[in-house]
Structure formats: C-alpha cells, structure tokens
Specification:
Layout lengths: L3 E9 L1 E3 L2 E3 L2 H10 L3 E11 L5 E14 L12
C-alpha cells in the first residue's frame, strides 16, 4: 500500500493592469517537478457586505506524493 504526503497552499489573487494575477506559474511547476500531484482545488469566495457571494478572490490547492517511491513491480515489502 502506498503512503502519501500531502501539502496545501492558498493563493489570493491581486489586481494588476492585466487583470487578476496569482503568481502560481513558477511554484506550481516546481512542485510538479518535485513529484507533487494536484489532487484538488477549491475557489476562495469573498462575501459582500450583505453576506452574499461577491467573487472569487483566490484558490486553495491540495497536492500529494508518495512518501517512499513504490518499487517497479508495485509490491511493497515490510
């Protein structure tokens, strides 16, 4: 059985002349190169003064990777 490590990161968008930017381009590619796999994401929604959903302000990412690389035959020995 494969054991997994998880990590998460929240990113809040910032406004620029080009629109909303996140800055995730660099670190998300590095995470993939380190063996992390994106397993889930959730938008971060901000409410307005009335408590009604106003808009997406960011995103929450969840990544996983094996704790120990699995052997080529897929059989783990204790």
């Amino acid at each position: 059985m494969t054991k997994w490590r998880y990590f998460d990161r929240m990113v809040v968008f910032t406004e620029s002349e080009e629109g909303l930017v996140s800055g995730i381009d660099g670190w998300i590619n590095e995470a993939g190169a380190d063996g992390w796999e994106l397993v889930g994401s959730t938008p971060l929604i901000a409410p307005n003064r009335d408590g009604v959903a106003y808009g997406t302000i960011g995103i929450h990412f969840v990544f996983k990777r094996p704790c120990v690389p699995a052997p080529p035959d897929g059989v783990m020995t204790p």
